[in-house]
Amino acid sequence: MDAQTEPFRAVPAEVRPYLAELVGRTHAVCGPRLAGVVAVGSLALGDYRHGRSDVDVTVLVEGPPPAAVLRELAAALDHRRLPCPAAGLELVVYPAEFARVPSGEAGYLLDLNTGAQLPGRTAFDPAGAPSFWYVIDRSVAHQSGIALYGPPAPEVIAAPGPAELYPAIRASVREHDDGEGHLADNRVLNGCRSVAYCRTGRWSAKRDAARQVAAAEEEFRPLVEAAVRSFERPRAAALPLPGPQVRSFLAWVRARVDESAAAVGA
């Protein structure tokens, strides 16, 4: 395997050709402005499930580039022109200088969601948008991101500090507590991941975090194990979970996050 394909060994075989083409198209559009392409999310944490997981990618550009370049990139990576073999592509473009500094802001230049199982989204202005997803993704990227192009992820993406990260985790739990637009299993497993982070200071794959919580919290073990069984099925075949138990679990998660935030002064 040559130097150009070596980075892709770290991602599942099912998405390697797609990611190689994505990097090639991104470089063709951005040219010398391109500072990095990093696989994040389940790819970075080693828990990608083909047919269930999204492909999450962070792109870093110097500049920032003209708006026309960002529109061209969104068009080049649209599922209709570059079919995504995963459930969908969630791609975020940041100014390289923004990503190098810890921040609690969304800060993106382009937020693109596209794919067979994702509602389409192409946004160029983060004003007024919730920032928590982006803050958490950058924290995961700094810890475990896979550099598909450019320097190692920790060199180009700063880790948000506790003052930025814990409010983002709280907001994530509130979002999943509301439940709108989220599968029940994902609500539970994201809660497990938040608790595991609070206890260890590291991001875990959802199923690893679920095992930690199930082993330590007998009260919630049946719910968490049911969420894992559901997560191992395709999205369209996800299992229903009892709403009151999910809400009770997420209330417990919120309390654990608040305790951890208070302990670090966040």
TrEMBL record:
Pfam families: AadA_C, NTP_transf_2. Keywords: Transferase. Residues 163-251 form the Adenylyltransferase AadA C-terminal domain. Coiled coil: none annotated. GO terms for molecular function: nucleotidyltransferase activity. InterPro entries: AadA_C, NT_sf, Polymerase_NTP_transf_dom. Residues 35-67 form the Polymerase nucleotidyl transferase domain. This is Translation initiation factor 2.
